[in-house]
Design brief:
The radius of gyration is 16 Å and the shape is globular. Strands 3-2-1-4-5-9-8 form a seven-stranded mixed β-sheet, with helices on both faces. A two-stranded antiparallel ribbon has the order 6-7. The protein is α/β, with parallel strands linked by helices and 206 residues long. It is 30% helix and 30% strand. β6 and β7 (158-159) form a beta hairpin. Bound molecules: S-adenosylmethionine. The site of S-adenosylmethionine has 19 residues, from α1.
Length: 206
């Protein structure tokens, strides 16, 4: 099964509140985004946003240019349905982040919770980082959350990578400066715990 059909199947067969990564509020992500100090008119991209409620809270916080990208059309449709007429304010991008061509320097803030860690092939990770470097403006903000070293080694039936702050930063390289990081113990809807790491970097010139 390829990436797209895998995720279409997941979102087609499970309620958004019954997937292991579900959180009522993306509290850690919101805190990091607020901490960057971006303006309400800045452009935000939530990569692999799925049916996450982050977009709802970003809208409520007054951000005017929010894009949500996901490989699953079903996931995006679930988020749109939840938002109703408010969905029209958001740009929805159905694409695979390892293949998409995003416009150069288009985003001030890149957010990814639990997507990069699915990239087990070095070539896919390289394409992802190349895309961040292209699409995020110099000085822009990059927030990536993955499973921590003591997090799960599989998610949704797929093998995942696990990262510390250092090993995640090594994947991104010297064009990115680590500004902050933190760990989260995520409580799944099934009563289990998953350890995450959030890493916030700024994109430099080179
Ligand atoms: C574990 S879920 C996390 C969803 C959301 N970020 C959250 O925190 O609730 C991973 C998401 O990434 C999407 N995804 C997986 N691989 C992808 C890829 N190569 N390109 C774009 N989206 C992808 C899936 O469809 C799914 O919505």
């Amino acid at each position: 099964m390829n990436t797209k059909s895998h995720w279409e199947h997941i979102y087609g067969t499970k309620a958004p509140t019954q997937v292991s990564w579900y959180q009522e509020r993306a509290r850690f992500s919101l805190q990091f985004i607020q901490k960057t100090g971006i303006r309400k008119t800045d452009h935000i991209l939530d990569v692999g946003g799925g049916a996450s409620t982050l977009v709802d809270d970003l809208r409520v916080a007054g951000f005017q240019h929010i894009s949500v990208l996901d490989v699953s059309a079903t996931a995006l449709q679930l988020a749109r349905q939840r938002l109703g007429t408010r969905a029209a304010d958001v740009r929805w991008i159905e694409a695979d982040i390892t293949k998409v061509d995003l416009a150069e320097q288009a985003y001030d803030l890149w957010h990814d919770r639990a997507v990069f860690h699915f990239l087990t092939q070095p070539a896919d990770r390289q394409r992802y980082v190349d895309t961040v470097r292209r699409a995020v403006r110099v000085g822009g903000h990059v927030i990536v959350a993955t499973f921590a070293p003591d997090g799960p080694d599989h998610c949704s039936g797929l093998e995942v990578m696990r990262y510390s702050e250092d090993s995640l930063h090594r994947e991104f390289g010297d064009s990115f400066e680590v500004m902050d990081s933190t760990r989260e113990t995520h409580h799944t809807p099934f009563g289990t715990e998953q350890k995450f790491i959030y890493c916030y970097c700024r994109r430099h010139e080179k």
